[in-house]
Design brief:
Length: 472
């Protein structure tokens, strides 16, 4: 194949933040002792400036013009080497309160830091520092992916050694020929280069400028952005980008006039508008439904009315609505997938999920649990450096600190984020020995669940299971 790449290409360019993030750590130095140390080192190394300024930090925290007298806090990764090697010079390395004030309890400062890095570079986020976090945690952190194929170097999708596809189909695929009526069910499909779309944002969290940014970023990455119906007009999103947007329709009235979009996403309260839309609109009709009590019946009703795909959404913390606040998206999604399987409807539709998906691994885990693709919201806003004010759980109550940003910069940041997530997904699939993201849907056998593992351990300790996990 010569120089030709088999991979989906997203044009990646460095896009540094327009407002630098506050440093994660603050380094407190005893300046008099630092001076003594530097003098000793300067004599020992014959005034070799480079060597002297590399002390006591190899990450360059003290290599500015004023060295340790004005530490470059942003370079500190809290490795604690300086503190161990020069305990008398380094007073303390402490988390920066300004950094800790970013985001909320779900979109944590660390998550924002990661998204910022992904949106800046467009690549993966290998830091070479090892993993310092907990072994398991709530929500997505209680699921691990099976990386048993990681030892096979030929499976390296990121280096084009082996092609790993992230393309997904959205809509109603061709399922069967109805023998009685001798008519084939007409397929209505869109293809996305990656299993991620950009989600609709409530009016107080968006603007025509944000919609245009998301539409252009989606076009550049080969995916879709769901934007308000009013923003689909010429003057906000140009005609050549209309094939990358889905119009979000909130009422039957909004569905009347012709719509320039690849698909229509119908708001939960406008479910009964599906038959009208089905007749007047040639593209895909996607029904949005919240994870609230009765969502399974609502899914069946939407499919019966003619929806091509379902978009199930949790809140921004990945929780259900109404009486389902204590259930996490992982559990709710599993219920939805299994119900569609039971009804023999799963292969005839596409399941999109959103809410609480703020890392690339969340997307893969959602697909393992039964989604075809995910929609991202707060992560895309964080890439644009638009962060929530206070706790941001319910979309209707979430406020964003809106600020201006250049269009091109915003498009590049979101495209970089999407590419970075794609690279990470390929890395995970490569380690799992999977060559196509479509094959991963509902493959729970490729995941391990903390509760299950802990239960097996408990039963093993109690003598109920042997070392192979089998009851004696
Ligand atoms: S903790 Fe590590 S990165 Fe931070 S100043 Fe010390 S040596 Fe440098």
């Amino acid at each position: 194949v010569g120089q030709r790449s088999w991979r989906v290409e997203v044009e990646v360019k460095e896009a540094p933040p327009i407002r630098p993030l506050p440093p994660r750590y603050r380094v407190h130095v005893r300046k008099a002792r630092l001076l003594t140390l530097l003098l000793k080192e300067a004599i020992h190394y014959r005034f070799n400036r480079k060597v002297v300024l590399s002390r006591p930090c190899i990450y360059g925290v003290f290599s500015g013009r004023l060295g340790g007298f004005r530490p470059q806090h942003a370079k500190c990764v809290a490795c604690m080497r300086c503190k161990q090697e020069y305990p008398s010079v380094i007073k303390d390395i402490v988390p920066n309160p300004e950094f800790l004030a970013l985001g909320d309890s779900y979109l944590t400062p660390e998550a924002i830091w990661t998204i910022n890095r992904e949106a800046t570079t467009g690549g993966d986020i290998t830091r070479g520092m090892g993993y310092k976090g907990p072994f398991s945690g709530p929500g997505f952190d209680s699921i691990w992916t099976d990386m048993s194929e990681i030892v096979r170097p030929t499976r390296h999708g990121k280096l084009d050694v082996e092609y790993i596809s992230t393309r997904v189909d959205i809509g109603r695929p061709f399922v069967h020929l109805d023998a009685e009526l001798l008519v084939a069910q007409e397929p209505r499909l869109l293809t996305s280069n990656l299993p991620i779309i950009l989600d609709w944002l409530p009016p107080q969290m968006t603007s025509p400028h944000i919609s245009l940014t998301l539409a252009k970023a989606a076009a550049s990455a080969g995916t879709y952005a769901v934007i308000p119906r009013a923003h689909c007009a010429e003057g906000v999103v140009p005609q050549d980008h209309s094939s990358s947007v889905w119009a979000y329709v909130e009422s039957q009235g909004e569905a009347q006039a012709p719509i320039r979009a690849a698909a229509i996403e119908v708001a939960p309260q406008a479910l009964e508008a599906i038959p009208t839309l089905r007749r007047s609109f040639q593209g895909l009709v996607v029904q949005r439904l919240p994870f609230s009590p009765g969502f399974e019946e609502a899914m069946l009703r939407a499919l019966e009315l003619g929806a091509d795909a379902l978009h199930l959404c949790a809140d921004y913390h990945g929780r259900g609505y109404g009486g389902l606040e204590n259930a996490f998206i992982t559990e709710l999604l599993r219920r939805a997938h299994l119900r569609l399987l039971d009804e023999r409807l799963r292969d005839g539709t596409t399941l999109i999920v959103s809410g609480g998906i703020i890392r690339a691994e969340h997307a893969i885990k959602a697909i393992l649990l039964g989604a075809d693709l995910v929609a991202i919201d707060m992560a895309a806003l964080a890439a644009l450096q638009l962060y929530p004010e206070g706790e941001a759980r319910l979309p209707s109550r979430t406020r964003i600190k809106l600020s201006d940003f250049p269009l091109e910069w915003g498009v590049q940041r979101v495209a970089n984020l999407l590419n970075s997530w794609r690279e990470q997904m390929i890395e995970i699939m490569s380690a799992m020995g999977t060559r196509d993201v479509r094959r991963l849907r509902g493959e729970v056998g490729r995941a391990m669940f903390n509760e299950v593992e802990e239960d097996m351990l408990r039963r093993y300790v109690a003598g109920e299971l042997d070392a192979q996990g089998v009851a004696p």
